[in-house]
Amino acid sequence: MTTTVEDRLDATFTALADPTRRAIVTRLAKGDATVNELAAPFDMSLPGISKHLKVLEQSGLISRTRQAQFRPCHLERDALDSALTWIEDNRRIWTERFDKLDAHLRTLQRTPSRSKKGQQR
């Protein structure tokens, strides 16, 4: 199955749209954790947490490894870096557009309009 950059971004932003999944990502930014450790702060069943973890895993935001009988979750920072790069690129584009619009509006404010010229006669 081929995934494009767009597909990965869609999966990342879809996964991060849920507050529980964002909280899990925030927790994993501090270090790897087991499913039980990730479930502890939530009033949710382990299968419920596992469903969130599956979405995060499918989006590429987390991975699971095996250490003895545990399968700790690990944050995959590359997926977050791709989303951050997309956000920064779009922020730069929109900042440039707003700056051009602002410069244009300032030019219009400094230039007397034709109707005002006509009123001054």
Brief overview:
The chain is mainly α. The protein has helices spanning 5-16, 19-28, 35-39, 46-59, 77-110, 114-120, and strands at 62-64, 73-75.
How would you summarize the topology of this molecule?
Elements lengths: L4 H12 L2 H10 L6 H5 L6 H14 L2 E3 L8 E3 L1 H34 L3 H7 L1
Antiparallel strand pairs: 1-2
Helix pairs in contact: 1-4, 1-5
What do these coordinates show?
The structure is a single chain. The chain is mainly α and 121 residues long. It is 68% helix and 5% strand. Strand 1 and strand 2 (73-75) form a beta hairpin. Helix 1 (5-16) packs antiparallel against helix 4 (46-59). The radius of gyration is 24 Å and the shape is elongated. The relative contact order is 0.12. The mean pLDDT is 90.
Highlighted features:
two-stranded antiparallel ribbon, 6 helices, 5% strand, mainly alpha
User: Helix-strand pattern, N to C?
Assistant: HHHHEEHH
Sheet-strand content, in percent, reads under 5%
Average pLDDT over all residues: 90
Largest sheet: spatial strand order: 1-2
Terminus-to-terminus distance: 73 Å
Give helix % range.
55-70%
Largest sheet: 2 strands, antiparallel
Shape, principal axes of CA atoms: elongated
Structural class: mainly alpha
The count of DSSP E runs of length 2 or more, i.e. the number of strands, is 2
Radius of gyration: 24 Å
What is the number of helices?
6
Runs in which pLDDT lies below 50 for 5 or more consecutive residues are: none
